[in-house]
Known about the structure:
This protein is mainly alpha-helical. It is built from five helices and no strands. The longest helix is centred in the N-terminal third of the chain and has 55 residues.
Amino acid sequence: MNGTIQTLLKLSRGIDAVNYRFGIVANYLVLFAALLSAANAGFRYGINALIELSREFHFLSGIQVLVRWYGNNSNSFLEGQWYMFAAMVLFGAAWTLKVNEHVRVDLVYGMVSDRARIVIDLIGGVLFLMPMCIVLMYFTWPWFLGAFKSGEVSTNAGGLVRWPVLLVLPVGFGLVALQGVSEIINVSRR
């Protein structure tokens, strides 16, 4: 029995380590999305000034090539932002669960004993969290596969391929499910 518990605790620590790394990725995605958003906004608002500058100074006519390139690809920058947002939310969700910062109805949870909290956490993990993650992985995996096989691209002009952001869905829910297993292990031993 003790060997089984030690194995489960080792599994829990491994899951926590994996989700910690995905949490770091999520943190960096916040930075990258903010930088991309700032660059996109700066370019959008500065585009008229660049065009005017290139008209006044003919040796800067190459700026118009940059402006045309940006015009053809501006939607991809916007889509890149929401791709990163999706990844930061779904990759960060498991770590948020680990550090107990997830949303829960604290009205009841805060008024009950520690023993009742353990029961609530176990029931919530086993009956709600795990089945929901499994259902979401089940439904989002074919969605990703279809987009990957077909090479689906955004319908927006200059848009990005869709499969990377669709892959984030089953992976993110899988990470939350794994963290749910880790939390159930940890709650069970209390």
